[in-house]
Design a protein that fits this description.
- The chain is of the alpha+beta class.
- Helix 2 crosses helix 3.
Protein backbone atom coordinates (compact mmCIF):
# COMPACT_ATOMS: atom_id res chain seq x y z
CA UNK A 1 0.00 0.00 0.00
CA UNK A 2 1.92 3.05 -1.26
CA UNK A 3 1.83 6.48 0.39
CA UNK A 4 1.74 9.86 -1.34
CA UNK A 5 4.29 11.24 1.12
CA UNK A 6 7.99 10.51 1.58
CA UNK A 7 9.64 9.17 4.71
CA UNK A 8 12.61 11.43 5.46
CA UNK A 9 14.63 12.09 8.60
CA UNK A 10 17.99 12.92 10.17
CA UNK A 11 20.09 9.82 9.57
CA UNK A 12 23.34 8.88 11.24
CA UNK A 13 25.71 6.77 9.15
CA UNK A 14 28.51 6.15 11.66
CA UNK A 15 29.46 6.98 15.29
CA UNK A 16 30.34 10.56 14.32
CA UNK A 17 26.56 11.15 14.13
CA UNK A 18 26.62 11.60 17.92
CA UNK A 19 28.62 14.79 17.29
CA UNK A 20 25.96 16.14 14.97
CA UNK A 21 27.17 14.59 11.73
CA UNK A 22 23.77 13.53 10.42
CA UNK A 23 22.16 13.90 7.02
CA UNK A 24 18.57 14.67 6.09
CA UNK A 25 17.68 11.80 3.79
CA UNK A 26 14.85 9.59 2.62
CA UNK A 27 14.56 6.06 3.97
CA UNK A 28 12.38 3.00 3.42
CA UNK A 29 9.88 2.40 6.27
CA UNK A 30 8.71 -1.04 7.31
CA UNK A 31 6.56 -2.91 4.86
CA UNK A 32 2.91 -1.90 5.33
CA UNK A 33 0.63 -4.33 7.17
CA UNK A 34 -3.09 -4.02 7.88
CA UNK A 35 -2.48 -3.48 11.59
CA UNK A 36 0.00 -0.63 10.96
CA UNK A 37 -0.48 3.10 11.22
CA UNK A 38 1.32 5.99 9.52
CA UNK A 39 1.70 9.19 11.50
CA UNK A 40 2.92 12.70 10.70
CA UNK A 41 5.44 13.81 13.33
CA UNK A 42 5.07 17.21 14.98
CA UNK A 43 7.11 16.78 18.19
CA UNK A 44 9.76 14.39 19.49
CA UNK A 45 11.39 13.94 22.88
CA UNK A 46 15.14 13.95 23.47
CA UNK A 47 16.75 11.03 25.29
CA UNK A 48 20.29 10.08 26.30
CA UNK A 49 19.63 6.83 24.45
CA UNK A 50 19.78 8.81 21.21
CA UNK A 51 23.47 9.62 21.73
CA UNK A 52 24.34 6.14 22.97
CA UNK A 53 22.73 4.65 19.88
CA UNK A 54 24.25 7.09 17.39
CA UNK A 55 27.76 6.36 18.67
CA UNK A 56 27.16 2.57 18.92
CA UNK A 57 27.68 2.89 22.66
CA UNK A 58 25.56 -0.09 23.70
CA UNK A 59 25.88 -2.38 20.69
CA UNK A 60 26.73 -2.03 17.01
CA UNK A 61 24.10 0.32 15.61
CA UNK A 62 22.22 -0.63 12.45
CA UNK A 63 23.27 2.31 10.26
CA UNK A 64 21.78 4.37 8.76
CA UNK A 65 19.85 5.16 11.90
CA UNK A 66 17.15 7.73 12.72
CA UNK A 67 16.83 8.16 16.48
CA UNK A 68 14.16 9.82 18.61
CA UNK A 69 11.39 8.10 20.46
CA UNK A 70 8.56 9.53 22.51
CA UNK A 71 7.09 11.11 19.39
CA UNK A 72 3.87 13.05 18.96
CA UNK A 73 2.00 13.18 15.72
CA UNK A 74 -1.25 12.95 13.79
CA UNK A 75 -2.41 9.68 12.28
CA UNK A 76 -2.27 9.76 8.49
CA UNK A 77 -3.22 6.30 7.32
CA UNK A 78 -4.57 3.21 9.00
CA UNK A 79 -6.50 0.17 7.84
CA UNK A 80 -7.16 -2.02 10.86
CA UNK A 81 -6.51 -0.80 14.41
CA UNK A 82 -5.57 -3.55 16.83
CA UNK A 83 -7.31 -3.86 20.20
CA UNK A 84 -5.74 -3.81 23.66
CA UNK A 85 -7.91 -5.70 26.12
CA UNK A 86 -6.51 -3.78 29.08
CA UNK A 87 -7.00 -0.31 27.60
CA UNK A 88 -10.17 1.76 27.48
CA UNK A 89 -11.31 2.58 23.98
CA UNK A 90 -10.55 6.27 24.58
CA UNK A 91 -6.85 5.39 24.71
CA UNK A 92 -6.86 3.91 21.22
CA UNK A 93 -6.47 5.93 18.03
CA UNK A 94 -9.76 5.82 16.17
CA UNK A 95 -8.70 6.90 12.71
CA UNK A 96 -7.11 9.50 10.46
CA UNK A 97 -6.44 12.85 12.10
CA UNK A 98 -6.15 11.65 15.70
CA UNK A 99 -3.37 13.19 17.80
CA UNK A 100 -1.31 10.22 18.91
CA UNK A 101 1.98 9.27 20.49
CA UNK A 102 4.54 6.45 20.40
CA UNK A 103 6.97 5.47 23.12
CA UNK A 104 10.25 3.55 23.12
CA UNK A 105 8.68 0.27 21.99
CA UNK A 106 6.84 -0.27 18.74
CA UNK A 107 6.20 -4.01 18.48
CA UNK A 108 6.13 -7.39 20.22
CA UNK A 109 4.93 -10.83 19.18
CA UNK A 110 1.31 -10.28 20.42
CA UNK A 111 0.72 -14.03 20.25
CA UNK A 112 -2.06 -15.61 22.33
CA UNK A 113 0.42 -18.02 23.96
CA UNK A 114 2.90 -15.30 24.98
CA UNK A 115 2.70 -14.80 28.75
CA UNK A 116 3.96 -11.22 28.54
CA UNK A 117 1.84 -10.05 25.62
CA UNK A 118 -1.34 -11.48 27.12
CA UNK A 119 -0.80 -9.90 30.56
CA UNK A 120 -0.17 -6.28 29.48
CA UNK A 121 3.61 -6.59 29.84
CA UNK A 122 4.53 -6.48 26.17
CA UNK A 123 7.71 -4.62 27.08
CA UNK A 124 9.03 -7.90 28.52
CA UNK A 125 8.20 -9.99 25.44
CA UNK A 126 11.00 -12.49 24.86
CA UNK A 127 9.94 -13.46 21.35
CA UNK A 128 9.76 -10.37 19.15
CA UNK A 129 10.19 -7.14 21.13
CA UNK A 130 11.05 -4.26 18.75
CA UNK A 131 12.40 -0.87 19.81
CA UNK A 132 11.03 2.23 18.09
CA UNK A 133 14.40 2.84 16.44
CA UNK A 134 17.58 0.91 15.62
CA UNK A 135 15.83 -2.42 15.56
CA UNK A 136 14.29 -4.87 13.12
CA UNK A 137 10.75 -6.11 12.71
CA UNK A 138 10.09 -9.83 12.18
CA UNK A 139 9.87 -9.27 8.40
CA UNK A 140 13.45 -7.91 8.41
CA UNK A 141 12.57 -4.24 7.86
CA UNK A 142 14.17 -1.61 10.09
CA UNK A 143 12.58 0.63 12.70
CA UNK A 144 13.23 4.36 12.39
CA UNK A 145 12.63 7.00 15.05
CA UNK A 146 11.06 10.40 15.45
CA UNK A 147 13.59 12.87 14.08
CA UNK A 148 11.72 12.62 10.83
CA UNK A 149 8.63 13.72 8.94
CA UNK A 150 6.62 10.49 9.25
CA UNK A 151 6.64 7.23 11.19
CA UNK A 152 5.15 3.82 10.48
CA UNK A 153 4.56 0.98 12.92
CA UNK A 154 2.01 -1.33 14.56
CA UNK A 155 -1.06 0.55 15.84
CA UNK A 156 -1.08 -1.57 19.00
CA UNK A 157 1.76 0.59 20.35
CA UNK A 158 0.25 3.95 19.38
CA UNK A 159 -1.81 5.86 21.94
CA UNK A 160 -4.35 8.62 21.55
CA UNK A 161 -3.31 11.73 23.50
CA UNK A 162 -5.91 13.49 25.71
CA UNK A 163 -6.94 16.93 24.52
CA UNK A 164 -5.88 18.47 27.84
CA UNK A 165 -2.18 17.66 27.26
CA UNK A 166 -0.18 19.81 24.85
CA UNK A 167 1.89 17.93 22.28
CA UNK A 168 5.18 19.43 23.49
CA UNK A 169 4.40 18.18 27.01
CA UNK A 170 3.10 14.78 25.96
CA UNK A 171 6.10 13.79 23.83
CA UNK A 172 8.65 13.38 26.68
CA UNK A 173 6.00 11.69 28.84
CA UNK A 174 6.01 8.75 26.43
CA UNK A 175 9.56 7.73 27.39
CA UNK A 176 11.04 9.53 30.38
CA UNK A 177 7.60 10.13 31.82
CA UNK A 178 6.45 6.52 31.81
CA UNK A 179 9.82 5.45 33.22
CA UNK A 180 8.88 7.23 36.46
CA UNK A 181 5.11 6.85 36.36
CA UNK A 182 5.21 3.06 36.12
CA UNK A 183 7.16 2.32 39.36
CA UNK A 184 5.26 4.98 41.29
CA UNK A 185 1.91 3.56 40.20
CA UNK A 186 2.92 -0.08 40.67
CA UNK A 187 4.22 0.60 44.17
CA UNK A 188 1.07 2.35 45.34
CA UNK A 189 2.14 5.98 45.36
CA UNK A 190 -0.72 8.01 46.77
CA UNK A 191 -2.27 9.33 49.99
CA UNK A 192 -0.49 8.06 53.08
CA UNK A 193 2.81 7.57 51.28
CA UNK A 194 6.10 9.48 51.43
CA UNK A 195 8.22 9.40 48.28
CA UNK A 196 11.91 10.14 47.78
CA UNK A 197 13.21 10.95 44.29
CA UNK A 198 16.98 10.54 43.92
CA UNK A 199 18.34 12.86 41.24
CA UNK A 200 16.58 15.82 39.67
CA UNK A 201 17.35 15.56 35.98
CA UNK A 202 14.80 14.88 33.28
CA UNK A 203 13.50 11.72 34.97
CA UNK A 204 13.61 13.18 38.46
CA UNK A 205 11.43 16.12 37.46
CA UNK A 206 8.77 13.71 36.23
CA UNK A 207 9.08 11.70 39.44
CA UNK A 208 8.33 14.74 41.62
CA UNK A 209 5.44 15.88 39.41
CA UNK A 210 3.82 12.45 39.27
CA UNK A 211 4.26 11.71 42.97
CA UNK A 212 2.50 14.97 43.81
CA UNK A 213 -0.23 14.37 41.24
CA UNK A 214 -0.85 10.88 42.64
CA UNK A 215 -1.43 12.41 46.06
CA UNK A 216 1.66 11.39 48.07
CA UNK A 217 1.72 13.07 51.49
CA UNK A 218 5.32 14.19 51.11
CA UNK A 219 7.73 14.24 48.17
CA UNK A 220 11.45 14.65 48.87
CA UNK A 221 13.96 15.40 46.13
CA UNK A 222 17.53 14.21 46.80
CA UNK A 223 20.39 15.71 44.79
CA UNK A 224 24.14 16.17 45.00
CA UNK A 225 23.80 19.76 43.85
CA UNK A 226 22.49 22.59 45.99
CA UNK A 227 21.64 24.59 42.86
CA UNK A 228 18.85 22.11 42.15
CA UNK A 229 16.91 23.32 45.21
CA UNK A 230 15.07 26.14 43.44
CA UNK A 231 14.21 23.87 40.53
CA UNK A 232 12.87 21.22 42.89
CA UNK A 233 10.56 23.68 44.60
CA UNK A 234 9.29 24.91 41.24
CA UNK A 235 8.02 21.42 40.46
CA UNK A 236 6.11 21.30 43.77
CA UNK A 237 8.65 19.36 45.81
CA UNK A 238 7.88 19.38 49.57
CA UNK A 239 11.48 19.04 50.72
CA UNK A 240 14.89 19.23 49.08
CA UNK A 241 17.75 17.24 50.55
CA UNK A 242 21.28 17.94 49.25
CA UNK A 243 23.16 14.65 49.45
CA UNK A 244 26.78 15.27 50.43
Amino acid sequence: MSADYKFQGWLGHDPSAADGNMKWEAYEPKKWEESDIDIKITHCGICGSDLHTLRSGWKPTIYPCCVGWALMCYSMKTVKLTQRSDTKSSGMPSGIGDRVGVGAQSSSCLQPDCEQCTTSTENHCQIAMVNTYDDKYPDGSKSYGGYADYWRGPSHFVFKIPDQIASEDAAPMLCGGVTLYSPLKRNGCGPGKKVGIVGLGGLGHFGVLYAKALGADKVVAISRKEEKREDALKVRDDLFYPDP
